[in-house]
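## Example pair
The file below holds two records. Each record gives the amino-acid sequence first, followed by its structure token line.
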Amino acid sequence: MNDDVVIQRDNEVVHLKDWGVRVISFDPSSANSFQETTQVGIYGAQTTSSKVGELTLTLVFDFLADDKYDFELIRLKLLGLFATPGAFYIWSTRVPYLKWKVAVQGSVNIPRYESSDVASNDITVTMVCSDGYAESVATTLDPLTSTGKWGLGMNLTKSPKPEYRFTNTNSFRFFNASNIPLLAEERPVKIHFNGVVGKSLAITNKTTGQTLIINHALKKTDKLLIEGLVPYVNGTQIYKDCNHAYLDFMRGWNDIAISGASDFTISFKTHFYY
């Protein structure tokens, strides 16, 4: 394969090649799909719902040490990397703009061979991504020209070019480049708003037919954050001051309308999922 695999656990970033690791294969599967059916008549069934579960990633590698002492050091570092509880991110330098949030499933075995104490072959690590999808390294607030953060296969359009920050624009379009809808209860888009609101602010996604109304006066110095189902003003939750609606974003273009505001800036921050 000859590609490097990178692991990010908390603030530590490890390039496996720096530890003498040679990646043989790194193969994320597609997410598991589940179909629920109901019997219709005598001879057939009808699908009532479709759901997506976790996906499995398999990493196979080997490494060559300088001597038996170096072997033990590398072995201990690898076991510590993969045996530490909790989730971490993993990606390949072949596609550096997509990463998976994973946890190791089962144990990791790095055997010692009697014939050689300086090499270990075909070590397999199985990981599970509970989210079911890779996420983009970049967010929508990273420029689309950012090197290494965006790439082929991400469904992005060149014309018209997607934008995610708007000033004094009451009607605009939001482009969801993901392979799935961005649902407020599962993968919420963070909406940041700064502007003047007299009595209430309304944000409508005409594509989904949803309207979120914030019944709260805002000054230019106030900061409104809408994250999923809950709005905050200057860090304080104001769920009681809204109509308890929420905003989803379908795949592709979503037509957005703003009313009740002046002198404002609004931005949308999210990763995309593939």
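Second record, same layout:
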Amino acid sequence: MASPAPRLDILAPLSGWLVALDTVPDPVFAGKMVGDGISLDPTSCSLLAPVSGTVSNIHSAHHALTITSDNGVEVLVHIGIDTVMLKGEGFAPLVEQGQQVKAGSR
């Protein structure tokens, strides 16, 4: 008999309105090509770590990062639609790749 998957609590990375992922105007995310998830229409400006773990990747345009949780699950946090075209303008990372973060921290 297979062991149940470990539980992973994921905090909302910012305040906002929950939006069904399949309704966002981006076919990659709406089609779940990068996996299942949620979308938030933000009402706050500061992004918080949704899980405890290691920052395993920060996109060069600073609009997305991946945190590998303490039990090995990769959680992608992506900000905005078409934000890669901003080439990092308007984004200021407060963490570095390889840094340990705690859920809820900036």
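Notes on the second record: Strands lie at 16-19, 39-42, 53-58, 64-69, 74-78, 100-101. The radius of gyration is 14 Å.
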